[in-house]
Amino acid sequence: PQKKPLVVVTRKLPDAIETRMMELFETRLNLDDRQMTKAELIEAVKVADILVPTITDRIDAAVLSQAGTNLKLIANFGTGVDHIDLATARQRSITVTNTPGVLTEDTADMTMALILSVPRRLAEGERLMRSGDWHGWSPTFMLGHRIWGKRLGIIGMGRIGQAVARRAKAFGMSIHYHNRKRVHPDIEHELEATYWESLDQMLARMDVMTVHCPHTPATFHLLSARRLKLMQPHSYLINTSRGEIVDENALTRMLQRKEIAGAGLDVFEHEPAVNPKLLEMDNVVLLPHLGSATLEGRVDMGEKVIVNIKTFADGHNPPDRVLASML
Ligand code: 8YV
């Protein structure tokens, strides 16, 4: 029988996934789940036939230049592949796959949770309860803002953007979006969505903005200081995609000056670091990159990784190949 490929997994995955991987492949696990150092990553790409990294592994040109000729597949555990140098991978004929689709609904749920939490002051209210400082109800106590009837602007109308739109529509928001291209007319019709060719114009007109595009060289600081300034003072910004898409320092300054009303952030420019000023603000809800963090989702992601590896090892094109168009 054919020799099983050596699969090196960089982080602890759900038990069921690790067990299945051990059955199918020669698998090297990371049992203590410590983030690999650069030296360990280089060691991994030197020996692996297949690498299974996550967002916390920076697979840059320096790492890839040390890869052995046997490294043929990077089967990423996650959808975003911005931590992998795709151009270098392609030069070295290394296939890259990801796990799209299975975390769409979970990420959209978390986005909706933030869209509700920030204007309705959910986290602030919870902190108040725990502090023991609640002295009773009054008609003007801790008023937030309703989302019903408000305009939601979605940047990036892919799977997750559309799943957010469906939820927000059910909450009575009107759906607006900016995307590289218009989505199919049937989808626009279903969501009653308005397409904005100009991101700048959309930013100036929305009540809530939410980001759902991938982080690529083209979207780095897409929400720059200049663009953030186009937002209205009563508006909110939600980000569950990648921190790098928003200029975090510019956003922080705007929040300090009350140039926008609040933000809900699940992702940050320099994770796990967060601009400390954000921690002081009541109108900001912060989450530690929990968008897709459900047990079910992680198992689904693991299963996708396994299918990609198995298909590739059997000599076929894996289903979730990351396209060169992502570059
Ligand atoms: C994960 C994600 O937390 O898939 C993504 O792009 O951001 C999250 O689902 C992480 O990427 C896993 O590697």
Write up this protein:
It is a single chain. The protein is globular and about 75 Å long. The two termini are 38 Å apart. It has 327 residues and is an alpha/beta fold. The chain folds into two domains: 130 residues, NAD(P)-binding Rossmann-like Domain (Rossmann fold), CATH 3.40.50.720; 183 residues, NAD(P)-binding Rossmann-like Domain (Rossmann fold, 3-Layer(aba) Sandwich). The mean pLDDT is 97. The structure holds 2-keto-D-gluconic acid. The site of 2-keto-D-gluconic acid (8YV) has 9 residues, from loops. GO terms for molecular function: glyoxylate reductase (NADPH) activity; hydroxypyruvate reductase [NAD(P)H] activity; NAD binding. Belongs to the D-isomer specific 2-hydroxyacid dehydrogenase family. InterPro entries: D-isomer_2-hydroxyacid_DH, D-isomer_2_OHA_DH_cat_dom, D-isomer_DH_CS1, D-isomer_DH_NAD-bd, NAD(P)-bd_dom_sf. Pfam families: 2-Hacid_dh (PF00389), 2-Hacid_dh_C (PF02826).
